[in-house]
Write a structure and sequence with these properties.
Length: 254
């Protein structure tokens, strides 16, 4: 039996002001919470961001108390939630930069040199901050191009034994790239309807956005941090995954 929980009305009214319901269909919805102030240490400088987090739910309701009541038993820490860091006047600025960044536990958190994710994350935030307005979407269900962290560890073992990054995923029974951008695009549309400039080397992201009806006016590429550890991996991304090669290097993992 689900526990029926009663909350302090003040608590619910504080939360209600900052939760937005985004309907995905009759039965499903994305609940977007924010903005929340998030000062970020970006290469030694403090940059102000507004942070939003979202949750997918099999219930569509404006009665957010019902949603809050589900959380304590939903075991959410066992799952990953995605979020977005917004900078400047993202809703109204004429030009805004966006990045859809796929989570990379090894690259973003540990600073692994086997890929260039950590570098891309840092540089994207820096571009957005320098530009004055933009948003970085951190997509938590995209580990290892959608195979998950444990499977990525297995794929790394295969890669250490001569398989390239695409074949390793295929050998484990996955498609090469199973990432889905639909929820992130819905959140983007809730935050901004004007055109965006996409930070990416990956044409699939550009296609996904355009197919979902987003007005993408431009794309900027992100190259750098090539090393002996990720050279082969980056070359594979370009040769086998259709990534676009840059003028200054061959670095690509987005
Ligand atoms: Zn990575």
């Amino acid at each position: 039996m689900p526990v029926v929980q009663k909350f302090d009305p003040k608590v619910i009214s504080l939360l209600q002001e900052r939760i937005k319901l985004i309907k995905t269909d009759e039965e499903r919805a994305v609940y977007l919470v924010g903005p929340i102030k998030l000062p970020v240490n970006l290469n030694g400088e403090t940059v102000q961001f507004k942070w939003y987090c979202w949750l997918n739910c099999n219930e569509t309701t404006e009665d957010f108390e019902r949603i809050v009541a589900k959380l304590s038993s939903a075991n959410l820490a066992e799952y990953q939630q995605s979020s977005v860091l917004v900078h400047g006047d993202f809703q109204n600025a004429d030009h805004a930069l966006i990045r859809f960044h796929s989570i990379c536990h090894t690259g973003d958190i540990f600073g692994s040199k086997r890929c260039d994710c950590g570098y891309q994350l840092n540089q994207s935030l820096k571009h957005i901050s320098d530009h004055g307005s933009g948003a970085l979407f951190y997509l938590a269900n995209h580990e290892g191009r959608g195979i998950g962290l444990f499977s990525k560890a297995l794929a790394y073992i295969l890669q250490e034994n001569g398989y390239d990054t695409v074949d390793a995923n295929l050998q484990l029974g996955f498609v090469d790239d199973s990432r889905d951008y639909s929820d992130a695009i819905k959140v983007l549309k809730a935050l901004r309807t004007k055109p965006v400039t996409l930070i990416t080397n990956n044409p699939k992201k550009l296609d996904a956005l355009r197919k979902a009806g987003m007005d993408v006016e431009d794309r900027v590429q992100l190259w750098g941090d090539v090393s002996e550890y990720n050279e082969k991996y980056l070359k594979t991304k370009i040769e086998r995954s259709g990534h676009l090669n840059g003028d200054e290097g061959c670095c690509n993992n987005d």
